[in-house]
Amino acid sequence: QAKPVEKFDESLAHLCEDMFASMYAANGVGLAAPQIGLGIRLAVIDVTFGKNPEAKIVLANPEIMHIEGDQREEEGCLSMPGIRGTVLRPSYVTIRAQDVTGKSFEMKGEGLLARAFCHETDHLNGILFIRHLSSLKRELIKRRIRKMRKAGDW
């Protein structure tokens, strides 16, 4: 479980820009601070893959306020390259968070954005997407990772 962001300053703004750059370099739509070794409740999201600078979202101390509907889609994670699985997530999500300056906001997301809100919030709560898979699928993925580690590919 990551700790709340308490200091909203220039170093946080730089961190967010670095996180966006890393996320874009890996062709991701979201990145949470724990994925880069920082135990703070901070995530960045851009479901346009950098095509629309206005779509960049910084989530500091996010909380999911409302969920609705279901969507079952394939999901991956920058923490687990090459690993994918079909995950059930809400179709619509309302999130409350703070922006890079500390200003509180609420935002609604649907489809991929709703999925990203849930996925990144899970990271801040110490949860990887594979926890949402069946125990059999999760075990197959763990076995695959062990084989990759043994071969030096992980």
Layout of strands and helices, then pairs:
Elements: H1 10-25, E1 30-32, E2 42-45, E3 57-68, E4 71-76, E5 84-89, E6 92-98, E7 104-110, H2 112-124, H3 135-150
Antiparallel strand pairs: 1-2, 2-3, 3-6, 4-5, 6-7
Brief digest:
By secondary structure, this protein is an alpha+beta fold.
If you had to describe this structure to a student in words, what would you say it looks like?
The chain is an alpha+beta fold and 154 residues long. Helix content is 29%, strand content 29%. Strands 1-2-3-6-7 form a five-stranded antiparallel sheet, sandwiched between helices. β6 and β7 form a beta hairpin. It starts with 9 loop residues before the first helix and ends with a helix.
Main attributes?
alpha+beta; about 150 residues
Strand content: 25-35%
The major pleated sheet works out as: 5 strands, antiparallel
- Total of helices: 3
Helix content: 25-40%
Element-by-element helix/strand order: HEEEEEEEHH
Poorly predicted runs are none
What does the overall shape look like?
globular
Average pLDDT taken over every residue: 96
Structural class category: alpha+beta
Q: How do the strands line up in the largest sheet?
A: 1-2-3-6-7
Distance between the termini: 25 Å
Gyration radius, rounded: 16 Å
E-strand count: 7
